[in-house]
Each structure stands twice: as structure tokens, then as C-alpha cells.
Write a structure and sequence with these properties.
Length: 369
């Protein structure tokens, strides 16, 4: 018997519609988060690389715009939490990476360089402190599992903890550490792979398809906590299908990038809803594996065989180039994160309408209307 849509998440997180909008840096702005939460889903703000004051200000902005539950997301990856020392990166790795970036720098009149990037500020712990101080409704962990002490600190202030993982083993570990819900991230997903350590090769990083990972996760931890499915879901059919597999809800990233309230550039929204939308995994933009729209940069990076710098040092090394591309609205030299479900998207709806319509249609598909 298929459970009534959203019943378990309503109980666990207090939301009406079992749709979670992913935390997405630069995209999941307070306006999007509030629109999703006000429609009955769970809007999730991104806080990676934000300074503590900015995290607090954004939380307060969301609170001003909704009295419904919302979440705040951050990555807990080992090499992001404690930034690698630039001096520890071998010279040939720095030069190999910079050589590929140098092929593109002249397009924006940027000087070429073979230098290593400066040390990165370590902002994760400070952001976590702000979230706990603000007693946010939901903490969303990605790209790494919260340890039991961190989960306990959130629980003490009444915050629920949801954790996104890409393997059943990580799901079991997250639940053992006290997570209140697990999100199974399938290989279709846009953005970064949700592992706490980097897999060296693309093949190992790719992961398991949602169709296989979600039921495996449900079998492993579904009696202990709700399990949501992520990766490739962009419409009511996806929500109904994941519900039929036993999932308690879905998390969507790519679909929400192309909504009216998203902070993504209009060019990105257009690229997600028309034309060629081939995706590939690359570590050339940030240093961690992520699914993006394939571009001349992802192709040049892959064929170069260059090794990405660790942590987020690759993003730091290329910040001049990727920043200039963003400013110029260039669609080849900045990461346009997208999951494989992108080919089924053709419009840019208001986020609240999307949430309400998806829930109503999924209920009709499941015969629960
Ligand atoms: C633009 C974009 C940014 C993302 N940023 C984050 C992030 O900051 N933190 C995180 O945990 N996951 C992030 N993700 C990954 C999502 O949490 C999720 O795994 C994925 O979007 C689900 O697949 P879908 O894109 O097919 O819906 C991002 C995804 C996208 C598309």
C-alpha cells in the first residue's frame, strides 16, 4: 500500500507538501526559500562560503518572509571544513590545473598564471554556530555526514537534521549519528556528489541511479526515519514514482534553479529549459565532482587529464576566470549545475505554483486526490 503523500514528512518536519528545495549557493536566495515554504514545501537556504553575519542576515530575511518551517544547508566535506594548505599541493598539480585555465584566460583579457591560489577561509564552523544560535527549524547537511555531537547540538535547540547521502552506507551512518531524515542522492542529480571525501576518479564518483538508490535506502533505514529521493525529479510524475518506490518525499535542485524566484542568472534558466542540455561530471570548476551542463571548458578540462586542486582550491585558482565569465554572462566558462532531468523542463514557473501543482498532480496520479 502506498502511504498518503507527505504524511510522514508532515509529522517529522511539519510541512504540508513532501517537496524539499535544495540549498544552492547563489540560487536558493531567501525569496525562493520563502516561496517554497509558503506553498507548503521546505525551502532550504544555502550558506556555503557565506560569512557568519551574512548567514544570520539571510536567516532573518527568510523568517521575515515566512512563518513556515525552512532549512539552512551547508557542506560538511572534510576538505571544505578544514581548507587544505596551499603549500601542500604539489607544484606539478598547480601548474597542470593553471595551464588549462590559461587556455581560456585570454578570452577575458586576464593575465595567465602558474601560481598556487591563496589559503581559503574556513567558514563552516562559524556558519554552524550561527544556525544553532538562531535555532533554525531544519539543518540540511550535504557533501558529508554530521557527527553525533553536531546533531545533538542542533537537537538541543529544537532543530531537525536532514542529511543528504549518495550511498546506503552513508545513510546508515547518518541515522546512527541521529539524523531525523535522509535524502538519497542519485547519480542523476545536478550539482556536487554528496560524499564526505573526494573520490579520485569520475567513475567512482558517479554514484547510483535514483531508481535503485532510493528503494535500497528505504530498505536500510526507512523504518527508522523518513527517506527522501533526490536526482532527476522535475515534475509530478517523478514525485509519484518516488512515492510508489516508498520514498517519503523528494528533494529537487535543478527544477528550482529555473523558477522565477531563483537567484540564477536568466541565461542559466534559459539554458536549462531549451536547446542542448547534455550534462557531465567535472571537478574542473570547484575541485569536487559535480554535474553541470557540458561546455567547451568541461570538455577541455576532461581531455587535458589535469588533476583538480583539493577542497575548493580549484574554485579559488579559477576565481578570476569563472568570475569574469559570470560577469560577461558567458555560458561556457562558469558551472551551470544541472541534473539529467533537465531535458524534461521547458518553463520557468513561480516556485509556489510549481510546489502546489506538483503535489496536486502527484496525488491524482497516485489516486489520492
Ligand atoms: C545549482 C545547484 C546547486 C546545488 N548546491 C548544493 C548545495 O549548496 N548544497 C547541497 O547540499 N547540495 C547542492 N546541490 C545538490 C542538490 O542538493 C541535489 O542533490 C540535486 O539538486 C538533486 O538532483 P536534481 O538537481 O536532479 O533535482 C545543488 C544542486 C544544484 C542543481
Amino acid at each position: 500500500m502506498i502511504r498518503p503523500l507527505g504524511a510522514r514528512l508532515h509529522e517529522e518536519l511539519g510541512i504540508e507538501v513532501p517537496i524539499v528545495q535544495s540549498g544552492m549557493a547563489g540560487v536558493a536566495v531567501p525569496e525562493l526559500v520563502a516561496a517554497v515554504s509558503n506553498a507548503g514545501g521546505l525551502g532550504v537556504m544555502a550558506s556555503l562560503r557565506l560569512k557568519p553575519d551574512a548567514v544570520r542576515a539571510a536567516i532573518r530575511e527568510v523568517r521575515d518572509a515566512t512563518d513556515k518551517p525552512f532549512g539552512v544547508n551547508i557542506w560538511l566535506h572534510d576538505d571544505v571544513r578544514t581548507s587544505p594548505d596551499p603549500a601542500s599541493i604539489p607544484d606539478d598539480v598547480v601548474r597542470g590545473s593553471q595551464a588549462v585555465l590559461n587556455e581560456f584566460r585570454p578570452q577575458f583579457d586576464l593575465p595567465t598564471t602558474l601560481e598556487r591560489p591563496p589559503a581559503q577561509a574556513d567558514l563552516v564552523d562559524a556558519a554552524l554556530d550561527v544556525m544553532i544560535d538562531e535555532a533554525i527549524p531544519v539543518f540540511s547537511a550535504g557533501v558529508g555526514i554530521p557527527d553525533a555531537d553536531l546533531v545533538e547540538r542542533f537537537h538541543q535547540v529544537g532543530t531537525k537534521v536532514v542529511c543528504m547521502v549518495a550511498t546506503v552506507e552513508d545513510g546508515i551512518a547518518a541515522v546512527a549519528n541521529g539524523a531525523d531524515a535522509v535524502i538519497a542522492q542519485g547519480s542523476e542529480s545536478g550539482g556536487h556528489r554528496s560524499y564526505g571525501q573526494k573520490h579520485r576518479h569520475e567513475n567512482e564518483a558517479t554514484g547510483i541511479s535514483s531508481l535503485v538508490l532510493a528503494p535500497s535506502m528505504i530498505d536500510a533505514v526507512g523504518t527508522e526515519c523518513p527517506v527522501l529521493a533526490a536526482g532527476g525529479v522535475v515534475d509530478a510524475r517523478g514525485l509519484a514514482a518516488m512515492t510508489a518506490l516508498g520514498a517519503d518525499g523528494v528533494l529537487m535542485g535543478t527544477r528550482f534553479v529555473a523558477t522565477k524566484e531563483s537567484g540564477a542568472a536568466p541565461m542559466w534558466k534559459e539554458r536549462l529549459t531549451s536547446g542542448d542540455r547534455t550534462t557531465s561530471l567535472t571537478d574542473g570548476f570547484t575541485g569536487q565532482w559535480a554535474r553541470v551542463l557540458s561546455t567547451s571548458f568541461t570538455e577541455a578540462w576532461a581531455s587535458s587529464g589535469a588533476e583538480a586542486l583539493p577542497g575548493l582550491m580549484q574554485a579559488a585558482a579559477g576565481s578570476d576566470l569563472f568570475g569574469a565569465a559570470k560577469k560577461a554572462n558567458d555560458d561556457q566558462l562558469q558551472p551551470l549545475y544541472a541534473g539529467t532531468g533537465v531535458t524534461q523542463m521547458s518553463d520557468v514557473p513561480a516556485a509556489g505554483d510549481l510546489v502546489r501543482e506538483m503535489a496536486a498532480e502527484a496525488k491524482a496520479i497516485l489516486g489520492q486526490a
